[in-house]
Amino acid sequence: MTDVVHPAGSDGHGRHQEIAETTGDPIADPGLPVHQPRPTDVDPRAEKRAERQIATLFGLSSLMAILFCVAYFAFDVGSEPDVVLGMGASNVALGLTLGLALLFIGIGVIQWSRKLMTDTEIVEMRHPLRSSDADREETIAALTTGANDSGIARRPLIRNSLLGAMGALALPAVVALRDLGPLPGDVLYKTVWREGMRVVNDVSGTPIKPEWVRVGQLINAEPEIFFNGEPYGEETIEGHEQLVEKTKAAIIVVRMQPDDITPIAERENWGVDGILAYSTLCTHVGCPISLWEQQTHHLLCPCHQSTFDLADNGKVIFGPAARALPQLPLAVDDEGYLIATSDFEEPVGPSFWERG
Is 4 exposed, middle or buried (0-12, 13-18, 19+ CB in 10 A)? Predict the structure, then answer.
């Protein structure tokens, strides 16, 4: 098989090459129609009218964003929500106002580009790989020209109303953050543990006596309040709130030889005959931990292998956890059952930036 070589001008490639040599462009006439001016190009009144229309659209967008925030607080979404057209009034109002806010901005930008920005066709010749420095300079100049042609610098009404509309769109996002839940307040700093509250088995709810705990044994436990139905504060903890409080209050009870324990000065009386209690929540990311090594007195977190020495005040000896396990001070009541003498003295669970 032999290659066939066409002479210049005998095929399309040759023709394009000939045009390029003559005009400097790969295509002499791309077929663009003659540019026709728009009414806003020749009539200053039409230009001002279009400018006011566009600013009105941006203003309506701002109004819809504000109405979104009003609707968020105005309609009831509780057990008996407001209803409109057979649907939740809150959902209808929020969807309608946010949708219109976005729609008005979109229509305004389209009208801006159609009526006021330059509509002259710009042809950019394709180039292989990296552009030359001259092409880059030309591109920057074209972008600068486009910015100037848009009139954003000399049309403050449009510019400012657009910025206002875009800024107002942030309001629904900020307001909607409220649905993430109530502010935590001081709930991260306290649990339901109180002085005199009994320690019970977390499955049976049975109170625990020291003599029932063997050396080397670990018991998952929690406060008796969740089993006896007594109110906490002014009302009983139920539902989701109870689950949250049970998670924060969960502890492990372990027993070691008293001689193996080296408490810090203020914790000398926090145990009962070698029985200590610690939070089950890892101080790294809050995983529940109960992998207990009897001989070494180490507690291992299964998530990221943080290891705590329960004989040495819950100190971290390995892994990513940044602080020791919180310890719950214990005592014995008049009937011989284990009780807490106070709440944890520090927040349980993962560390957080506001923890002092």
Answer: exposed
- Let me know: does 212 contact 219? Beta carbons within 8 Å: no
Paired tokens of 182: 């109530």
Q: Give the model's pLDDT for residue 190.
A: 87
- Model confidence, pTM: 0.53
Cα 62 to the center of its chain, rounded Å: 25
Residue 186 lies in a domain: no
pLDDT of residue 135: 85
Local structure of residue 219 (DSSP, 8 states): E
The DSSP symbol for 234 reads T
In the chain, how many domains are there? 2
Say whether 128 sits in a helix, a strand or coil. coil
Alpha-carbon span 70 to 54, nearest angstrom? 25
Alpha helices in the chain (DSSP H): 12-23, 39-42, 44-74, 89-115, 133-150, 156-168, 170-176, 225-228, 239-249
How far is Cα 35 from Cα 355, in angstroms, rounded to an integer? 67
> Does 141 share its domain with 210?
no
Query: Average pLDDT, stretch 325-339?
Result: 94
Q: At what angle do helices 44-74 and 89-115 cross, to 10 degrees?
A: 160
Q: Taking residues 323-328, report their average pLDDT.
A: 94
Give strand pairing partners of 293. Answer: 298
Model confidence at 293: pLDDT above 50: yes
Map residue 186 onto helix, strand or coil. coil
Percent of the chain with pLDDT over 70: 83
Same domain, 95 and 146: yes
Q: Which two tokens stand for residue 193?
A: 């543990």
